[in-house]
Amino acid sequence: MSLSFSRFMHADRGEVPKGSAEIFFRNVKFWKGDEGEEAPPVFNLDGVNYIHVKVAGLLFVATTRVNVSPSLVLELLQRIARVIKDYLGVLNEDSLRKNFVLVYELLDEVIDFGYPQTTSTEALKSYVFNEPIVADTARLPPLGPAAMFMQGSKRMPGTAVTKSVVATDPGGRKREEIFVDIIEKISVTFSSSGYILMSEIDGTIQMKSYLTGNPEIRLALNEDLSIGRTGGSVYDYKSSTGGGLVILDDCNFHESVHLDSFDLDRTLSLVPPDGEFPVMNYRMTQEFKPPFRINALIEEAGHFKAEVILKIRADFSPTITANTIQVHMPLPKYTARVSFELDPGAVGNTTDFKESTKKLEWSLRKIVGGSEHTLRAKLTFSQESHSNIMKEAGPVSMTFTIPMYNASRLQVRYLQIAKKSKTSNPYRWVRYVTHANSYVARL
Predict the structure, then answer these.
(1) Is residue 256 in some structural domain?
(2) Measured between alpha carbons, how far is residue 294 from residues 51, 327, 339, 379 in Å?
(3) Residue 110 included in any domain
(4) How many domains does the chain have?
(5) Which residue, of 91, 106, 124, is where some domain finishes?
(6) Is the pTM of this model over 0.90?
(7) Domain boundaries, position 46
(8) 301-334, pLDDT tens digit by residue?
(9) Which long-range contacts (CB under 8 A, 24 or more apart) does 20-24 make?
């Protein structure tokens, strides 16, 4: 198996053509699928399997002629990306170029002649000796990972995503701090009348520690947390705490987590390894309140015209602001022209009609909780519509990010650090963020 990422790094076993990185990039960029369709994560060209993931705008690729498990390789690529991010602090093309030698050293230890060895940041510290060259974080885009936790004028510290876990801070002192991020990806499908047809949450509790001496951490979750549809034990799913307010279908934990007192008081204890790692992954299919309500209406306005009305309502607290909202809606294939009308005084909105794919696009820079936004689009057709427009348009899909919000109501009650020194008081940061995995409204 060979590994390559971006357009300029390559770790080769010798079983695939030397120009495989260029072949891959050219085919992904100009993928010959359906219009607007991206290249699949796994595909075969001339007997070579190309398996890739996209992380922070970079393509991490594995190539092989052997019939390997795609899921195993995809997981390996994600872990390699995480290890590189742990060492470099910032994962982008600039940091990779500056740390070319270090990244090659990491790949040499992670992969030995095409076979994975270890993806543990902690274990690699014994074998990797190059010091990372710190990238200029001021050059990061304003909506990069570090800005994910911006909340109005108040900004949560973003050092967990911009600082190396192995580099020494200027002056030789290391800032004692630990970050816990509760990240949720939600999937919701609404019917044409606004009822929820499907809802699901895939969540993870992510931790990144900059604490010296590897102290024990105690992480307490909701006391009324239940596991399984009947609630209770993480081991047998039998009720021990009753029907809680937060009911997870299932969950799994990192190997460093001890569950001795989890059934008693929902507390996790662990000694965090170096680097960023998932403390707990969980899934929830119980009914929850979706953050947005989408109403979509399309009506004929003559033989060659129709009108689309899209309404978005934010059903969360006015103290919370969602950002990077994108709304897409496929239109009938014979749509020739679209004119848009927004709410009076709307700021930070952009609209577009992609003629090649016949898609309506609506971008909103931010949405404050409790607000409602409306878009009217007047469609002009190149031919008379002889069928039901409702069947040829939609569904409406939406993507967004909401910092300091989580739909499952899973909370960290406290984060306790066992430190021997009374003078030491590490910084503790607990942050929440929700992304849309699949947010769809049918017409």
Answers:
(1) yes
(2) 36, 10, 21, 20
(3) yes
(4) 3
(5) 124
(6) no
(7) 2-124
(8) 877 888 999 999 999 999 999 999 999 999 988 8
(9) 20/48, 20/50, 20/63, 21/61, 23/48, 24/50, 24/52, 24/59, 24/61, 24/63
